[in-house]
Amino acid sequence: MAEPIIRFSGVTKSFGDNSVYEGLDLEIHRGETLTIIGGSGVGKSVCLKMLIGLMVPDAGTIHAFGQSVTELGDQGLISLRSRIAMLFQGAALFDSMSVEDNIKYPLIEHNWGTPGEMNKRVSEVLEMVDMPGIQKLKPAELSGGMRKRVGLARSIAIKPEVILYDEPTTGLDPVNVRRINGLILSLQERLGVTSIVVTHDMDTVFTITDRLALVYEKRIAFAGTPDEARNHDLMYLREFIQGGRGTLDIDF
Asked: In angstroms, what CA-CA distances link 100 with 59, 143, 156, 157, 163?
């Protein structure tokens, strides 16, 4: 397998007396979809936030595209976030802005093209998420599934190499869950992106995953293919796969 484009090595992280990670080691390879699973409050989303510099590890190293994330200054982090986009759990849309202005926000932040090029890009990404022609709507006029898709459109607007999905199907009905899963697969194929997905939905895991990683006992206890996971002897992992652990998971 090729050299990983993202690597966590010996990462530790605590919040006061709450130790979340005590030796996180994980590699992500270009073009794959990796899902991160684990119990409530184990820090799955923390992993994503440390990768893009929203949180800082207490020790250890995080490398992305050959750079040490923890050593990047403000400009370095801005550059990194033009290559790694994140779809937050609640889509994180600006309620006062139209769909068009929400999608343009990262384009403006990263000085991406002329106004005409930005307008064209907004139309392109809305087509990609099957929501053409809604530029002038406000987030309040959208359903939960539509908000997720607009958030995804905003994430891919700057043509990132990696997309981070934080609980992309939480709170959605089965129809929209299938739609979001299909979009994740479609974008990986059409854009060649690398995807890292935090989820507790095992149907999503086995629909989209190339590899899955289990956070357990403050580290990655397993990383491998779905077939390897099904045949692994770790009881906690087997319970997760059988649906006994993940159904009520709410992470921070």
From this structure: 40, 16, 14, 11, 20
- 3-state secondary structure at position 8: strand
* Residue 244, C-beta contacts closer than 8 angstroms, at least 6 positions apart: none
High-pLDDT (> 70) share of the chain, % = 94
Rounded Cα gap, residues 192 and 85, in angstroms: 14
Q: Look over the chain and give the mean of its residue pLDDT values, rounded to a whole number.
A: 88
Ramachandran bin of 41, using left for φ above 0, alpha for ψ from -120 to 50, beta for the remaining angles = left
Rg (CA), the chain: 18
**b/e for 112-136, b at 16 or more Cβ within 10 A?**
beeeeebeebbeebbebbebeebbe
- Beta carbons within 8 Å of 6's beta carbon, 6+ residues apart: 26, 27, 28, 51, 62, 63, 64, 65, 162, 194, 196
pLDDT tens-digit profile of 36-66? Answer: 998 877 888 899 999 999 999 999 999 999 9
- Alpha-helix runs per DSSP H in 129-173: 144-156
What are the φ and ψ backbone dihedral angles of 72, each rounded to 5 degrees? -80, 140
What is the pLDDT averaged over residues 123-133? 91
Q: What is the pLDDT of residue 84?
A: 94
Q: Nearest Cα to 48, choosing from 166, 145, 133?
A: 166
Q: Is the pTM of this model over 0.85?
A: yes
